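Re: beginner question about structure tokens

> Can someone show what the tokenized structure looks like for a real chain? I only ever see the sequence side.

Sure, here's an example I had lying around. Input first:
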Amino acid sequence: MAPYRTKQFEEIVKINHFDLSVYYIGRSVKTRDWKVENSKLFKEYHLTGYFKLGNHYLLYKDVKRVVLENDIFLLGGYNSTAMFIFLFYIKKYHKKAIFVMDGISPKKLAESSSIKFLVKSKFIRRMDGYFVNGQVSRKYLIKNFDVNPDMIFNQYLTVDVDRINEIVKGSLNESKIDKINKFVILYSGRLLPRKRVSDLLTAVSISGIKNKIDILIVGSGNELTNIRRLGKELQLNISFIGFIENQDELFEAYGLANCLVLPSENDPWGLVVNEAEAAHLPVIVSDACGCALDLVKSGINGYTYESKNTNELSEKIIQVYNAVENGTNMGAESFKIISKWKFSDSAQSFKNLIEKLGS
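And the corresponding structure tokens:
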């Protein structure tokens, strides 16, 4: 369960009047324990699993019954045996299957010839349609699996753009951190090695303007201790806010920032960029993030840079700092971009996919 997924599905139901049932198979993720209410617009179930392996189970109860009771299926990935069990019955009973993909790092666009690829290929090529996020997913499917481009529809996976805009434009709660009078760079997300938050700290330290910059870090994870230590070594001004369960409070934190940086070395998408743009922020995103191809326009609303290249990241930070200080409204351009990437766009795209399946 995730807040953005719930709102996406609710918009799909409202616009298209579908009878939707969602079956959860994954267990909760410790660093993503969002506060998510059950939806009143679609039905939600947790499938009973047996023989746990990692985040999923090997076998699930009632898959055949679920397939017989429904007509069209959205299968979210291929990393669980449940997806293959579902696909077996879907094809057996001549139902329709749609592959759902939230993105992939541009660094992983090229698949290698391996057993994993063969299994993945067998699964993906049996789909009737594809509901995927952005250019990166589209390129991945066409390049590696020869998927018919006419059956690929943009998922427009996003966040509540209007709600974030409303919160950020309203009164801000500044009690969580010391009053900030400098240029504030925000990192929001899990603190994991692959997120490379240390690159952000290094880039600021060599920028020549580190005394004019405050860093605001929102999130938690096993890299927190290392990041704190590095910040002290580099003598940076950093404010830490842990994981914020309440989404409204999270978006208030965005209102304290002047820019968001997402320095990941491997990120399928990066919904924090959607959030930042809804909050009217310029963004600096590594080229290893799936969203970079769609949501970042170089020199317009921010920049992309080569992942792990702290010198280039430092240069981009300076460029955004100078642009903002000189009155260039890159944040307004961010909002223009994300205003065309809403739940309503997702719902319309899904409607087009369903119509295409029936044609």
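Each token stands for a local structural state, so reading them left to right follows the chain. Confidence is low (pLDDT under 50) at residues 173-179.
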